[in-house]
Amino acid sequence: MCPGSRRMGEVIGADTMAAMAEQKVLIVEDEPMVAEVVERYLRRDGYQVQTVASGPAALDEFSRFRPDLVVLDLMLPGLDGREVCRRIRARSQTPVIMLTARSDEVDKLVGLELGADDYVTKPFSPRELAARVKAVLRRAVDRRSELDTEVLQFDRLRVDGAARSVEDERGRVQLTAREFDLLYYLAGHAGHVFTRNQLMDAVWDYEFAGDASTVTVHVRRLRAKIEADPSRPRYLKTVWGMGYKFEP
Amino acid sequence: MCPGSRRMGEVIGADTMAAMAEQKVLIVEDEPMVAEVVERYLRRDGYQVQTVASGPAALDEFSRFRPDLVVLDLMLPGLDGREVCRRIRARSQTPVIMLTARSDEVDKLVGLELGADDYVTKPFSPRELAARVKAVLRRAVDRRSELDTEVLQFDRLRVDGAARSVEDERGRVQLTAREFDLLYYLAGHAGHVFTRNQLMDAVWDYEFAGDASTVTVHVRRLRAKIEADPSRPRYLKTVWGMGYKFEP
DNA sequence: CGGAGACGTTAGCGTTTCGTAAGATTCGTA
DNA sequence: TACGAATCTTACGAAACGCTAACGTCTCCG
Question: Residue B226 and which of A34, B49, B170, B207 are 20 to 30 A apart at CA?
Fold first, then answer.
């Protein structure tokens, strides 16, 4: 199927991040139905979620909760969403996704002008919103990558999450985006055995519906690049009947 | 992970899928045209498909057919899709994909509230639905297997569920996937006696219909690997006339 | 517009693993 | 001890599994 658009420099899936440190999302939405569904959906994706129903409450909760991302309804009682966005932006870089009623293009533009990272028009599917949240957070993670990523080192193999670079006893190894993501995930959970499907969930896009053999091939390509003898891997071990693991 | 569960003489849809265990999908759709197209597509992808046209029939068939996933039309005669979803969820974790007519967002939201794993709006492309089915099933299967993974230790024997590795006083022991599953199960219920049939139910695929001597052979292979003196086992004890137990 | 690189897919091939059956051995009991 | 039943042991063919080397599509960039 369609492999899903992957931007260069993206780190790893939300599920992945959730395993490392739970990311926090603040929802600002006055319609209880919508708020509740979105909340549940994001929870299921592994985020820690907080919901408020008004502008002032949003600002309070923002200070207290320190979310990694804000989902913000444009139409709010008390304080307009625009204003909330502006104020959030005044004090932090935290990404904001705007919810706008009906595809009113003017609102869209204004929202962006305010510094929103993305916006979703009502009616929207929670699924789409979740995808946006994931994507925006990825980009945000990239931006302050030096804070959130780590450098993994095993023997002579060095995997630098911030620089997205890998080094070998023979020097720098050039990996593609997906190769890096895969290696970073495996190395970040060294010793743990994953099935191909689990790896697809962790490294590939949410909607990806491809075959598990895709993983096989990527592991092979990785081995070709980082293993001295790819047919007798030192790091990327096959676990027969299960999948793969990274041997520390 | 699935031994002899392939039924002879059965026509396998796509040769690609021939290697996979056949998964079951229940379609609940009252429009015959739609139902037929979806059915054909999913069959081609190697799924075993059952179709029903009403809510009550869906619940009956759900109990009988035990699908791995349900594709559920929101608009149904007799019993609303919402209610069907709710009842399915009340008794199992089986993933549900909702089909909603036209992007009626309220329905979407309500569908999610009910615990649907995904939904597709009509008109949809059968290919897309098939992709969603695949993706949802993948995640569902993973969730099941990723659950309880702990490290078990008895004397000098160490069984690590995450790494799927076993260590001995003599060092690392190399087990096959099935050997590990068997050991992990027995050790995880140390002291408890299981018949061969119980072990087959627990460790093998539920459709597996082989004879119990398979277990005997696997226990033997395990003993050969983890016991100092396989003929006088320290851990894997035979309980005459009953089966086996793991001695803590 | 054309070439390169990244990615997913596919098919063929070699290897590992598994289930089975059949004969040997051990156990419980008379 | 002797006998039947349960368990153990062994070997082998088939199936499952992973590896590999293509190929096709898409995107990016000159």
Answer: B207
Answer for the pair B99, B133: CB distance below 8 angstroms, yes or no. Answer: no
| Close Cβ partners of A223 (under 8 Å, ≥ 6 residues apart) | A230, A233, A236
H-type helices in chain A, by residue range?
A: 14-20, 32-44, 55-65, 81-91, 105-113, 126-143, 145-148, 177-188, 196-203, 213-226
At residue A131, φ and ψ (nearest 5 deg) are -65, -40
Within B 186-215, residues with CB less than 7 Å from strand C: 204, 208-211, 213-214
Spell out the alpha helix ranges (H) of chain B: 32-44, 55-65, 81-91, 105-113, 126-146, 177-188, 196-203, 213-226
Tens digits of residue pLDDT in A172-220: 999 998 999 999 999 999 999 999 999 998 888 767 888 999 999 999 9
pLDDT digits (tens, 9 = 90+) for A118-167: 666 665 667 778 877 877 777 665 554 434 567 899 988 999 987 889 99
Q: Is the CB of B240 under 7 A from strand C?
A: yes
| 8 Å CB contact of B162 and A191 | yes
Query: Distance between CA A83 and CA A80 in Å, rounded?
Result: 5
Sequence-separated (6 or more) residues with CB below 8 Å from residue B19: none
**What is the spatial distance between Cα B240 and Cα B19, in angstroms, rounded to a whole number?**
38
Alpha carbons within 13 angstroms on the beta-carbon side of residue A163 total 11
What does the angle CA B216 – CA B218 – CA B219 come to, to the nearest 5 degrees?
65
- Comparing CA positions, the residue from B122, B137, B119 lying closest to residue B45 is B137
CA distances to A1, B45, B237 from B191, rounded to whole Å, are 49, 44, 10
Whole-number Å distance between alpha carbons of B181 and B198: 14
- Between the CA of B218 and the C1' of D11, what is the distance in angstroms? 15
Round to whole Å and give the CA distance between A129 and B124: 19
Q: Residue A29 in contact with residue A71, Cβ under 8 Å?
A: yes
CA distance B178 to A15: 28
